């Protein structure tokens, strides 16, 4: 054995600061706009749903931001996460490539999501918030926020996309175990939800709808704020602990990745592992950084860069992002966390700046990759994570064809123990891929005609 | 912060040998007997269901046994496991006690069970076995063996106790993901199963019945052996990596436990953490070692030390153990892994030798402890594990009353992500405790009247 299979950091070696890419973006970020005025929004516009300290962080240009001590101590419940060499997968592929994965499935919630849920709960607590609302797709984010609110003594209400609520019934129980309440979205608890249910009682729901409900609830309930698990700058900031740890871990074994890959729904686990490497790339380092999405929701690969709402009911500011349109309803693929119509402004800008690249993968291919993973590396990945695995396998196979000793780093964003119905459907041959006609995208985008262009 | 929250071992620091308590037991172990002759069984009697190399290990008196390199490499997929200080639980209790837990929930299967599944699959592979059969209660063991068989290229068939099969549907999917087949027990696939179903079609099943089915299958199918997840000496041997790691980890922070606690169904996670400490105790070290079981299945606290069968259909040798009788049908508590009528001969002997002590806890108290754990330490424990947590909390509270700085070490045997229906029942107030009248025990034991006494 040349190097160990696992590289573990002592908690005292954990990063003490988050990395803020806004300090280094070559062309900056376009500002969010107020939909009524078309002018850049100001802090006051956000104050209805976010606490001041997080709004400051959202727009901060400071390169390194200290992780508060109470957040650090809460992160220690499961961090630093292991960096593991996927030797058995390499052997099964017969590839000369080295595949490393950063295992973010080790958190109590089962994914990378607590990395931002904990600081968000903390900053809200410090600000004086008593209750947080949020949306969740596959349930990873809802669980993470429930867990984090419990840690910092906040109430928590989660609006969960109905299709995932039905597919993953145990997610609700996890949230309840951590003291949160969870309802399927659209729900009867908000005006938005009631209106949508009146028109489409059988709708599978969407992240856009669930966000609208959570925002409406936050605005209308005293001492309540809203927490978002992805898309926003401060979320990407908090997630950078993933990549910063990975850099330390790989340095310990004198390795550096040729390829970094993660799946991207809103962009948070992707940014988590990728942003520290984007910084290296800006400074001249050669590293290929790949974001992968489902073909059923091809935000990065088929959608234009536009100003669009973050939610279906148009209650958020207009965000500069790759978007399929806030009315886009993705097919019911099992990777619920990747069923979002938009993409983080930071990810969108990095695509435009050609600092990263994007790929779209169909779900059958991803499940095949996940099965190979389970049968070699053992751990059952979330359907979202399987997208990153599929790319890593393709890259490892390309390395074999080219006879190259490539080093691949993938973000193993979460385990799939709550997502086994997808595996059941795959194993029984009932799973299908979805074709997405261009007309569906054009139709959803037509609604954006009258809004500003970035 | 005086010491770190987590103590992590590098994989190169992992123990390279298992510890065999048989070399140190002050009064040895009574031998298993052949039920027909009443004489000690010999290796040939076991050869129908176990491979020779494991039979040798079962009776070995060698104190330290090398872990084969391929087993070590497979264990590295998830080991060494973290030793974590439960600071938030300590704070919630306001106790001066230090509570450490050894997190065995980090394995792909979610519990300590792969620690023996991997070597058992390996030794069978080396011996020439092509297929393994087994039983499983809560599903932890079935998942572990499915995962291990996949790693070493064996087929796997799991008979899962029907009540758990129904309560934990996703366990079956995990086993299938790792390529195993899983049926509810009693099943129509064996003569034993068919006979029981004919008499009691609605039976919830039991570990004893499932063992009978798996043994029958192994005996009657070519190149098929049987694997047991607990009770036997070689299983306890393989699990000692837990305690050996814990000793190294605690030594790193100059700590030593005053109390070691683990739950005991068949005895495997208990022996895993406890045996290396029992060795210390034999050598004069002061350490209190506690095994905890459910009041619904009080093998250690209310059952006599007898010779009994390991299974319901009386196909195994007679084992010297604390037993409620092989016909005992425990109440349907959620801790399926603790619903076994007997107890490992090693654990039984240690009780007689007064090297360890036993307690029985009702399930409502254990769920209350589990909820407190979830809301402080975050990770959701398996119902079995909650028993160890409940004892640790009681010991920490006693330390508070006595004003003592006690150090408590508990084996966190597995996570409860596949066991959330129990939490649902608890949170909705539908869970009950079970009374176990002495007559039920007496009735089950009456059947043993004509068998030898130890």
How is the topology of this model organized?
The structure is a homodimer of 454-residue chains.
Chain A: E1 6-7, E2 17-19, H1 43-46, H2 52-59, E3 64-66, H3 69-75, E4 83-85, H4 87-93, E5 98-103, H5 114-127, E6 131-136, H6 140-152, E7 155-161, H7 162-167, H8 169-177, E8 181-185, H9 191-199, H10 207-220, E9 224-226, H11 233-239, H12 241-252, E10 259-263, H13 268-282, E11 288-294, H14 299-302, E12 305-309, E13 318-322, H15 345-352, E14 357-361, H16 363-377, H17 383-402, E15 407-412, H18 420-427, H19 438-446
Parallel strand pairs in A: 5-15, 6-7, 6-9, 7-8, 10-11, 10-15, 11-14
Antiparallel strand pairs in A: 1-4, 2-3, 4-5, 12-13
Helix pairs in contact in A: 3-5, 4-16, 5-6, 5-11, 6-8, 11-13, 12-13, 16-17
């Amino acid at each position: 054995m040349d190097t160990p299979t696992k590289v573990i950091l002592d908690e005292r070696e954990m990063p003490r600061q988050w990395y803020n890419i806004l300090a280094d973006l070559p062309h900056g970020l376009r500002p969010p706009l107020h939909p009524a005025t078309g002018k850049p929004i100001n802090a006051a516009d956000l104050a209805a749903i976010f606490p001041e300290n997080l709004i400051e962080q959202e727009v901060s240009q400071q390169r390194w931001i200290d992780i508060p001590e109470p957040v650090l101590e809460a992160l220690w419940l499961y961090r630093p996460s292991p960096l593991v060499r996927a030797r058995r997968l390499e052997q099964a592929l017969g590839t000369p490539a080295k595949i490393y994965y950063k295992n973010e499935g080790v958190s109590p919630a089962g994914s990378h999501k607590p990395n931002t849920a904990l600081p968000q709960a903390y900053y809200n607590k410090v600000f004086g918030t008593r209750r947080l609302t949020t949306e969740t797709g596959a349930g990873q984010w809802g669980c993470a926020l429930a867990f984090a609110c419990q840690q910092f003594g906040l109430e928590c209400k989660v609006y969960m996309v109905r299709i995932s609520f039905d597919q993953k019934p145990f997610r609700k129980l996890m949230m309840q175990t951590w003291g949160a309440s969870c309802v399927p979205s659209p729900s009867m608890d908000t005006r938005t939800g009631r209106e949508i249910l009146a028109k489409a009682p059988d709708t599978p729901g969407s992240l856009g709808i669930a966000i609208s409900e959570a925002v409406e609830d936050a605005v209308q309930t005293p001492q309540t704020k809203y927490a978002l698990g992805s898309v926003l700058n401060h979320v990407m900031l908090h997630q950078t602990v993933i990549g910063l740890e990975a850099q330390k871990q790989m340095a310990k074994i004198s390795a550096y990745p040729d390829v970094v890959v993660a799946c991207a729904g809103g962009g948070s686990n992707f940014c988590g592992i990728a942003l520290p490497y984007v910084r290296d790339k800006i400074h001249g380092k050669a590293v290929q950084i790949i974001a992968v999405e489902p073909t059923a929701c091809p935000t990065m690969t088929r959608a234009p860069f536009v100003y669009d709402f973050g939610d279906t009911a148009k209650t958020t500011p207009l965000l500069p992002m790759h978007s399929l349109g806030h009315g886009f309803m993705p097919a019911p693929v099992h990777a619920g966390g990747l069923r979002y119509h938009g993409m983080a402004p930071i990810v969108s800008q990095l695509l435009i700046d050609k600092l990263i690249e994007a790929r779209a993968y169909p779900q059958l291919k991803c499940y095949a990759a996940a099965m190979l993973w389970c049968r070699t590396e053992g751990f059952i990945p979330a359907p979202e994570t399987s997208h990153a695995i599929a790319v890593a396998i393709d890259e490892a196979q390309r390395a074999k064809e080219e006879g190259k000793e490539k080093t691949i780093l993938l973000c193993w964003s979460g385990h799939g123990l709550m997502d086994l119905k997808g595996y059941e459907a795959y194993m029984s041959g009932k799973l299908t891929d979805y074709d997405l006609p261009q007309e569906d995208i054009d139709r959803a985008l037509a609604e954006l005609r009258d809004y500003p262009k970035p």
